[in-house]
Amino acid sequence: MPDPETTPPTLTAIRSRLNNTYTGYSIGCAAVWTALLATGRGLLDAKNWDMLRLGAAGWWAGWLSATIARVGYPPPRKLTEAGHRRLEKVSLALVLLGFVNFFRLLITGRRRAGGTADGSS
Predict the structure, then answer these.
(1) Domains in the chain: how many in total?
(2) Is the pLDDT of residue 28 over 80?
(3) Do 110 and 45 contact (CB within 8 A), yes or no?
(4) Is 33 a domain residue?
């Protein structure tokens, strides 16, 4: 955690407003997807680039659906301590699995030497 005495007050205020909020989560997701897509665009051939874009579009469609559902449904109950620990472990495993699959796609979908972005030589 950054030192509050050396962090600009504006940044501290923004962080405190976004910590553990859906807005903060959404901004974080957008940043990660931006990094994944930028990396993929630079390294993948056309077929695998399209697959990555389709995966990103599917994820964002799910995010939009969940965001809309949040408007119409009551908030969930608070998790018990055991439930919170279980959720942390499962979430970590799923995030790691996602990154493994992303790196696998980067490794197997690399452009051939001398190829172009559209996959032609």
Answers:
(1) 1
(2) yes
(3) yes
(4) yes
Nearest-angstrom CA–CA distance, 68 and 54 = 21
For residue 118, CA distances in Å to 30, 54, 67, 109 come to 25, 16, 34, 13
pLDDT in tens, 61-97: 999 999 898 888 887 788 899 999 999 999 999 999 9
CB 114 within 8 A of CB 121: yes
Token pair recorded at residue 48 = 């695998």
Within a 10 A sphere around the Cβ of 49, how many other Cβ atoms? Answer: 21
Domain of residue 65: give its range: 9-108
What's residue 74's pLDDT?
A: 81
- Comparing CA positions, the residue from 36, 45, 39, 42 lying closest to residue 111 is 45
pLDDT of residue 109: 83
* Contact criterion met (CB below 8 Å) for 10 and 77: no
